[in-house]
Recover the amino acids of this structure.
């Protein structure tokens, strides 16, 4: 059973031997079940998403009851395929198929289980073991067939590939049965001289599942009537699921009429497929997609040999032609390099990405947009991150949990199709922290810790997480995939019983000893410490998640002074004090502080300090409490309130998170002092006058009244720049603008006309040189008190 463990009644099983399996309709199998060997039991009952039994003759139920197979056809397209040797077709009473069905009427009807005997049409598949048996399919194109092993057309005597006659097409009718490759391969063959070229030439109403094409050379015709594909040349009203064409396979033919998987499709579903073949001017998945073609959960990583007449290489395509353009649906797919199609992208292309490789060998994924055959850079994201493919929902994960169609190793790989991965294996290993120079961190708490077969979570500390083993003296040293990791699960093993690690990887750089920020496991985020490729096992317990380190401001009070500038904002004054160390911050690692790789950033998070009013009485005599509203005016120890957050800058900024709640740890007041304004004095020495017995100055140019131009005025030539205007520097002596960009209301008082005085201000009426004094010199207006 692959039911969730939480649904099983294990107590009943251990107590009395009763079946622990849940009989609830919705408790379906979560993963495929495959039997390639023999079973003898009193009763055989299987729960799987899909179930494949290689040979019915090797599964023996000792009672008269049938073997019962529970599949999840409704939710996950599950099936039950049962192989048999030629001439030994099982009875319909040998197997019983249970399927969950949700009635459509009435809408509120609960799911129910439909029970039916297995049938030759739906469930029984004749086994194919040799190239000859494969070719014999052409003698009965309506039956169901299943591979019992790889089918290899390589002629070891001549060292060449043998020719394959495609199944269906040309001189034969189209193949209309079902074919289950059991995830074996059809390999090392050639096809040429046919208008329907491929392992299968032409299929109609057929289903092709679970097979790979490797080492094939498929050469299609070059006319508009010729089609070629790695798996199928020409497909009508059919389904291709879990099929691929791998490296070493070459498909060529007429432009736009050959593809890595299939040359032509109409009314056909192509699901969970990939192609890494070499092709000409065709499509990585499909050459020409006609009406009602549906592609889902697929990717193309092809090489192309196509060139222009002048020898210039042509771009690769995911689907070469789409005709009509609105007739094909593509979901949850991607392709590497090249273009999506020679045709325009329509709204039926959803959650599909173009992946490109940058000069630094990092991969970026760009979401395709309708209306153009090429992807834009508007949504370019990290192609090695599961977050990029969030729209694919639970069909993708980075943990290896069962049930997903895609697996991505965080920070290491593009999405991989789980159907083709080599089983699932849980990894167990020890880790320790290492310094950037490759030496072990000497802290006493840094001991070897086992992941216990699970993903690891830790907090950023400037150190590198590495798998460790023991050297000859028993000391911990950097380890890797082969010497200190144990693997448990269904994966390939060598003849000596050791795990086959050909498709498992760990990061080791000879130049940096694995201690670099890009590839090593140090920075905040999730990254796989071990990973595999498309042909490797689906590894569990390999994620290391480094959480951001929290930085907080310690308790303290800041009391900056600044000159009046028309604004209630006192942020700059507070930032200046914070940068001087007026308040300490906790959380930065000593290594990052020493390296100056992280600094406080007050801009990104829109940190703001704003001055508020002191207590005062309004015009009605009402007392307004301090801190009631923002206030720009001059005052001592005015209360201040903080908003926004503090972020970080520097190479290690992303490894830290600021605890905004710690802003409450700091309190502050601001003293705003008066700003200067300047007078303009037009004439500084009065004309001489003849003695008249008074201290009055008679020179009209020196007077304030009775003249068209006062001698002393307020210099209003300088105004603070408006908000948003550059440069924003406020000149000395400027009249300020308030928070609403309104120029302050300030002017000179009514200054008296001058009189003659001595230096002490006493009136002088006698002959001689004297001082001149103006009285009532001051400021008036609503904002006068700020200057």
């Amino acid at each position: 059973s692959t039911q969730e463990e939480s649904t099983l009644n294990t107590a009943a099983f251990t107590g009395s031997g009763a079946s622990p399996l849940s009989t609830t309709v919705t408790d379906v199998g979560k993963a495929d079940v495959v039997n390639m060997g023999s079973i003898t039991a009193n009763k055989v009952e299987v729960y799987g998403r899909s179930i494949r039994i290689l040979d019915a003759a090797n599964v023996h139920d000792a009672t008269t009851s049938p073997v019962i197979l529970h599949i999840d056809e409704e939710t996950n397209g599950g099936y039950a395929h049962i192989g048999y040797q030629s001439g030994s077709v099982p009875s319909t009473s040998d197997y019983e198929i249970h399927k969950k069905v949700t009635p459509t009427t009435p809408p509120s009807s609960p799911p129910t289980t439909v029970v039916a005997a297995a049938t030759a049409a739906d469930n029984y598949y004749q086994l194919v073991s040799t190239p000859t048996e494969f070719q014999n399919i052409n003698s009965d194109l309506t039956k169901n067939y299943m591979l019992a092993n790889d089918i290899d057309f390589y002629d070891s005597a001549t060292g060449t590939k043998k020719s394959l006659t495609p199944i269906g097409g040309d001189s034969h009718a189209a193949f209309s049965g079902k074919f289950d490759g059991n995830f074996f391969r059809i390999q090392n063959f050639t096809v040429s001289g046919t208008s329907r070229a491929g392992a299968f030439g032409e299929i109609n109403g057929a289903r092709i599942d679970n097979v790979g094409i490797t080492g094939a050379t498929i050469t299609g015709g070059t006319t508009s009537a010729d089609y070629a594909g790695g798996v199928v040349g020409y497909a009508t009203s059919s389904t291709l699921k879990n099929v691929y064409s791998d490296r070493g396979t070459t498909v060529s033919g007429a432009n736009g009429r050959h593809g890595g998987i299939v040359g032509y499709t109409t009314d056909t579903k192509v699901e969970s497929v990939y192609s890494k073949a070499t092709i000409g001017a065709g499509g990585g998945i499909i050459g020409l997609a006609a009406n009602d073609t549906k592609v889902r959960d697929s990717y193309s990583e092809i090489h192309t040999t196509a060139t222009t007449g002048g020898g210039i290489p042509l771009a690769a395509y995911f689907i070469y032609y789409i005709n009509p353009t609105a007739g094909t649906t593509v979901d949850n797919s991607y392709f590497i390099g090249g273009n999506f199609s020679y045709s325009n992208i329509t709204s039926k292309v959803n959650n599909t990405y173009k992946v490109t490789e940058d000069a630094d060998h990092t991969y970026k994924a760009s979401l395709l947009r309708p209306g153009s055959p090429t992807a834009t850079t508007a949504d370019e994201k990290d192609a090695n991150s599961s977050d990029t493919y969030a729209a694919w929902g639970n069909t993708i994960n980075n943990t290896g949990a069962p049930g997903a169609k895609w697996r991505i190793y965080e920070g290491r790989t593009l999405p991989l199709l789980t159907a083709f991965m080599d089983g699932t294996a849980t990894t167990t290993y020890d880790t320790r922290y290492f310094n950037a120079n490759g030496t072990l961190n000497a802290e006493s708490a840094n001991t070897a810790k086992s992941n216990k077969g699970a993903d690891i979570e830790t907090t950023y500390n400037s150190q590198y997480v590495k798998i460790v083993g023991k050297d000859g003296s028993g000391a911990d040293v950097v380890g890797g995939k082969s010497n200190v990791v144990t693997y448990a699960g269904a994966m390939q093993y060598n003849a000596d019983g050791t795990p086959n690690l050909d498709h498992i990887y760990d990061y080791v750089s000879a130049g940096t000893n694995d201690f670099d920020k890009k590839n090593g496991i140090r920075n905040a985020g999730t990254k796989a410490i071990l990973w595999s490729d498309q042909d490797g096992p689906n590894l569990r317990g390999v994620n290391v998640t480094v959480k951001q380190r929290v930085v907080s401001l310690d308790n303290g009070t800041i009391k900056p002074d600044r000159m009046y500038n028309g604004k209630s904002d006192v942020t700059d004054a507070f930032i200046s004090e914070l940068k001087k160390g007026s308040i300490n911050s906790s959380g930065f690692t000593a290594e990052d502080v020493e390296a100056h790789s992280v600094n406080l950033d007050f801009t990104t998070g829109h940190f703001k300090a704003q001055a508020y009013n002191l207590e005062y009485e309004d015009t009605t005599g009402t007392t307004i409490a301090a801190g009631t509203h923002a206030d720009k005016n001059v005052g001592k120890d005015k209360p201040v309130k903080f908003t926004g957050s503090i972020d970080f800058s520097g190479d290690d900024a992303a490894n830290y998170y600021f605890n905004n709640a710690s802003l409450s740890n700091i309190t502050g007041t601001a003293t705003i002092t008066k700003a200067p304004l300047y007078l303009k004095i037009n004439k500084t020495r009065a004309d001489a006058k003849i003695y008249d017995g008074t201290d009055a100055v008679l020179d009209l140019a020196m007077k304030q009244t009775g003249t068209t131009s006062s001698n002393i005025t307020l210099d209003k030539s300088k105004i603070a720049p408006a908000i948003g205007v550059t440069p924003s520097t406020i000149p000395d002596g400027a009249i300020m603008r308030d928070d609403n960009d309104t120029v302050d209301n300030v002017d000179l008082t009514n200054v008296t006309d001058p009189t003659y005085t001595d230096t002490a201000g006493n009136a002088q009426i006698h002959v001689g040189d004297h001082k001149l004094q103006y009285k009532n010199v001051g400021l008036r207006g609503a904002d006068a008190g700020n200057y």
